[in-house]
Amino acid sequence: MKWNYYHKKLEMSLMPLSSIQTGKRARFVSIEGGHELRSRLSAMGLIPGVEINVLRNSSRGPLLISVMGSSMMLGQGMAEKILVKQIG
């Protein structure tokens, strides 16, 4: 019972990366996508637990993020599939 409560509470605190504002940080939790997307993001360093800094998110066009010191751009569609927990 405790596990279910914790799991549901964690799910409620997750949000898509596309909703994180410029200047905020988030912790990568999971991907809502297939094997190809998971592999592609993993190769870019987006793995569970990694910290993501959102450098630019204008809600239009791609997001500019920083992961482990590397900057990269993600389209809004891809960012919608990345679930994160905001940390700052």
Judged by helices, strands and strand pairing, the structural class is alpha+beta
The CATH C-level name is Mainly Beta
Beta strands, count: 6
- Given the structure, what is the number of helices? 3
What do these coordinates show?
The chain has helices at residues 2-13, 35-43, 76-80, and strands at 15-16, 25-31, 51-56, 63-67, 70-74, 82-86. With 88 residues, it is α+β, with helices and mostly antiparallel strands. It has a single domain, classed as SH3 type barrels. The protein has a 6-stranded antiparallel beta sheet with strand order 1-6-2-3-4-5. A hairpin with a 2-residue loop joins β4 (63-67) and β5 (70-74). It is globular. It starts with a helix and ends with a strand. The model has no long low-confidence stretch (mean pLDDT 87).
Primary descriptors:
88 residues, SH3 type barrels, globular
Task: Summarize the helices and strands and which ones pair or pack.
Blueprint: H1 2-13, E1 15-16, E2 25-31, H2 35-43, E3 51-56, E4 63-67, E5 70-74, H3 76-80, E6 82-86
Antiparallel strand pairs: 1-6, 2-3, 2-6, 3-4, 4-5
What is shown here, in short?
Helix content is 30%, strand content 34%.
